[in-house]
Design brief:
37% of the residues lie in helices and 18% in strands. By secondary structure, it is α+β, with helices and mostly antiparallel strands. Helix 4 crosses helix 6 (143-155).
């Protein structure tokens, strides 16, 4: 279904399903653009919040988690795929930002759902937490982040909270 939709709508650069945990609760797999402040707030026990626009029957977050994201091959190739400088964490955010900066949409089809048993290793394993922090720093200091941040502000993405 995702592949068919991608083929039918050339303005879509990335399309993902809604991700549920094994109990059926919606995961935070579609999000607003992270900032250093939202990361600190999250580390202190707060939530990032899932704010995105709805356009027709699609949800338009700033980025979707890499657990399940589909690209047309041409889009993946055009934007260079996942940046190998990110070894775990933020590679999906980076790629979604590059796709959005290139004029295509990142979307979620709320009618398609998958189940994912997330391990959340960076919450328990100091080594994984270090990878997470290093990747976050790499992303926040990148030109991609600053272009995407400007794009999100200009388009008002994240200004209206909508739940699927």
């Amino acid at each position: 279904s995702l592949a068919r939709r991608l083929a039918e709508e050339p303005q879509l650069g990335v399309l993902a399903p809604v991700v549920l945990d094994p109990s059926g609760k919606e995961e935070d797999s579609m999000r607003r653009l992270p900032t250093p402040w939202t990361l600190v707030r999250k580390l202190l026990g707060g939530r990032e919040g899932n704010s995105y626009r709805r356009e027709g029957d699609l949800l338009l977050p700033d980025w979707v988690a890499g657990v399940c994201m589909l690209f047309p091959w041409e889009v993946y190739r055009r934007f260079g795929g996942f940046d190998e400088k990110f070894w775990l964490y933020y590679e999906d955010v980076d790629l979604c930002c590059r796709v959005r900066d290139g004029g295509l949409r990142v979307a979620v089809d709320p009618d398609i759902r998958i189940t994912h048993d997330a391990r959340r290793s960076s919450r328990r394993d100091p080594r994984m937490l270090r990878f997470h922090i290093v990747s976050a720093g790499r992303f926040f200091s990148s030109k991609v982040y600053w272009r995407c941040r400007r794009l999100a502000r200009d388009r008002g993405v994240g200004s209206v909270a909508v739940r699927a």
